[in-house]
Amino acid sequence: MKTHKVEETSSAASLEGHSALTFGAQNSLLIEHKAVRRNILLLLMLAAVSIAFLGMGSLIMSPWHVLEALFGQGSELNQFIIKSLRMERLLAAIFTGAAFSLAGCLMQTLARNRLATPGIIGIDNAAMAFAVSSIVSTGVSMAPSGMALVGAATATALAFGLSGGSGTRGYRFIVAGIGIGAIAGSITQLMLSQVNVDTANAAYPWTVGSLNARATDMVYLLGAGLLLSLIACLALSRRFALLPFSDQVITGLGEQIKKIRVAALSISVLLTGLAVAVAGPVGLVALVGPELARAMSGYRGIPLIGSALAGAFIMVLADLVGRTLLSPIELPVGIVTSIVGAPYLIWILVRHTPRN
Fold first, then answer.
1. Of 279 and 47, which is predicted with more confidence?
2. Residue 18: inside a domain, yes or no?
3. 173-211: b or e for each residue (b if 16 or more CB lie within 10 Å)?
4. For residues 175 and 116, is the Cβ–Cβ distance under 8 A?
5. In 112-142, where does DSSP find H-type helix?
6. Which candidate, 232, 239, 226, 229, places its Cα nearest to that of 301?
7. 295-328 per-position pLDDT tens digit
8. How far is CA 303 from the centre of its chain?
9. Radius of gyration over alpha carbons of the chain, in Å?
10. Residue 106: which residues within 8 A CB-CB, separation 6 or more?
11. Mean pLDDT on 64-81
């Protein structure tokens, strides 16, 4: 009886600060209270900056007027501006930021390296190159969006192949991805240099990252893909939590490491391709978003939901700054995020040695 009580006490202590949701006989989801509080804070931050986003522009509205318009109240002019002109761009910013950041979190976990984001290893540039090639050859249509997905998958396959037996582990995968990104960027510039000015201008937003070039259908397709990816991440969260461990440990726990890696990488490529299809390659959101999610609470696990919320917050804030800082001149969101994210990348390189 004493042993049984000790085991019960130990089990209760191990779950302190957590809640378990059980689905069926064998499936359960362990929820950390600290992570929930962090995510609620990030959600409130996102809501605040979203209201500011909807209220700022050529016609400035107070937060109260924004809320009125969202609920179908207030003047018809305010409702038209909020719902027809600004809401779609806000949704594009939220979806793309969340997608880039969640993809970055998964990629960092796979490679066990804080620098291993889709942008760093060339997935963004490859998706951009394929999208630009479709614009140069076929004109602006739904084709660039589909080609961006093809480019993201192609870059990932090439990085896998060039990294040899190391897969997503170690520096070879990152170095291979950097080389692929450099080549893809060069090809993009070569294509743009060979076309007329009008065609180059049509493709320009894809090269810097801009929410002006968004296609309505792709925004909602990205939203659907993001929702499905979040559900998949929650369902696989226990398995993804094993990725930082060695292959021997994961195998010893009865899990199939290859299937877990393929699932995480597939979600990352899908999210990156869809996000680039909407906004082009937006620099360093995938790097800064997961770091912000971790830094806010010192969370040592894999902050999947937190990364998505942090990325959405960063993207909305960056686009708001780009629209209003030098108004009426508008800065593409990709330039704003690069200006903020590049010093942070340098700081990581100087202060920390990435883990192999």
1. 47
2. no
3. bbebbbebbebbbebbeebbeebeeebbebbbbbbbbbb
4. no
5. 123-138
6. 239
7. 876 656 788 999 999 999 999 999 999 988 887 8
8. 12
9. 22
10. 233, 240, 264, 265, 267, 268, 304
11. 90
Beta carbons of 98 and 300 less than 8 angstroms apart: no
- What does the block give as tokens for 144? 């660039």
Query: Could you give phi then psi for residue 21, rounded to 5 degrees?
Result: -105, 125
Phi, psi of 289 (to 5 degrees): -60, -55
State which amino acid sits at residue 209: G
- The least confident of 41-45, 168-172, 327-331 is 168-172
Domain around 277: 87-351
Whether residue 3 has pLDDT greater than 60: no
Task: Give me 169's structure tokens.
Answer: 């582990």
Q: Give 340-355 as a DSSP string.
A: HHHHHHHHHHHH----
Tokens in use for 115? 């620098």
The larger pLDDT score, comparing residue 166 to residue 283, is at 283
Rounded-to-integer distance, Cα 38 and Cα 99, Å = 19
Structurally, the chain folds into a number of domains equal to: 1
What CATH number should be reported for the domain holding residue 109? 1.10.3470.10
Distances (CA, A) of 77 to 59, 80, 91, 195: 10, 5, 20, 41
- Between CA 77 and CA 67 the distance in angstroms is 14
Report the first-to-last Cα separation within the chain, whole angstroms: 47
Any domain includes 178: yes
